[in-house]
Amino acid sequence: MPHINLLPWREQQRQASQQKFLTIIGLIVGVVFLVMYFIGAFYDGLTAGQNIKNNYLKTEITKLDTRIVAINDLNKKKDNLQRRIQLIEELQSNRNLGTQIIDEITRVVPAGIYLTSLERQGNLLKVIGRSESNNRLSQMLRQVEASYLLERPVIQGIVAGEQRSRLLSDFTMHFYVKSFKQIEASQREQ
């Protein structure tokens, strides 16, 4: 007789395949969790490394910021010292300016011109005087223009002499004293 199996083999086969399926699913879930754990750990490591780098950069930036503040303070001090030095140099050069102006005026005033008033207001010099002729005044204008110290002469008025001194004409003139930098430049050229 043929051999007939009456045992519920299909059910056992189904249970075996179900058991196999559940085992495979369990292994897959375990492998997925393990992979996810390693991926998470990897990204946590990257994040921690980046945080360490960021903290290092922040500390270096704060150090550089303090250095920048110190450098800016030093630059301000340097600018302040340079202004002081420049002021001292100008004061030093202007120390004898009054004497130089009088000396230069005696050089540019030709014979035949008599000064009655000399007034200085800042860089403006106002001269009031008398002249024997207008030619002498024009000669004085040319000499002021050629001066290393004086510039921009302007005659404001010439009035014919009064009755007691008809030969002399009254005049008013003003001109300017050159700035410290212009004087230095003209002295270097000479």
Automatic annotation (TrEMBL):
Signal peptide: none annotated. One of its GO terms (biological process) is type IV pilus-dependent motility. It holds the Pfam family PilN. The chain crosses the membrane at residues 21-43. Keywords: Membrane, Transmembrane, Transmembrane helix. It comes from the Bacteria. The keyword Membrane applies. PANTHER family: DNA UTILIZATION PROTEIN HOFN, TYPE IV PILUS INNER MEMBRANE COMPONENT PILN. This is Pilus assembly protein PilN. It comes from Pseudoalteromonas aurantia.
